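How a chain folds remains the central question behind the approach discussed here. The record that follows shows the chain in one-letter code together with its fold in token form:
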Amino acid sequence: MAILSADEAVRVINAHAPRIIYLVEQVFDLDGEIEVARDELDDLGVEHSADSLKAAQRKFAAYDGQIGATIASFMIDGVLHSAVATATWHDEFGDTVEAILEDVREGARAGQFSKSSEKAKAIERQALLLVKHPSFNHGRVSFDKRMALAETLFRDCDPHTLSEITRRAENLFWLEQSGVKLDGIDHD
């Protein structure tokens, strides 16, 4: 596989005239991109009303629905060649959102968010309860079955929180099974 710049791809296409060129245009979905960033903020324990994220959404609103990236792929002599071209504003959007998320990650690493937040502590407590439940590892287990158990135990939680609890519980269970002694898990 060969990754080419847009200019190199045009030069190679002109020189070798491949029989088939696959083009994929990626439409910029502003709401979808912002939602992904909000999910990451949620995972870090930050409320999704981050002012900087709202400002980025307003700044790039005019580009919603436009083509943000184009990918071209073609074969020459058994080698897949690919090139990606992105709009300048699309790159700026990505850089802006990444800078916002990196600031939050740094804060989380400094202990300002995630582990110290009440929500994170509640998720940890509920995950420990879920791991201790006899049905957690009963029969043929799956994430969906464990999620159903979490829904039964924690009826007041929204689906996103239940998913976080279940994911955390599975990680705790794996750690326990690998020999790590976990605080809060009694071995009856």
Observations:
- Strands lie at 2-4, 21-27, 67-76, 79-86.
- The mean pLDDT is 86.
- Helices lie at 6-16, 30-43, 51-59, 88-109, 118-132, 143-153, 159-177.
- The chain is about 55% helix and 15% strand.
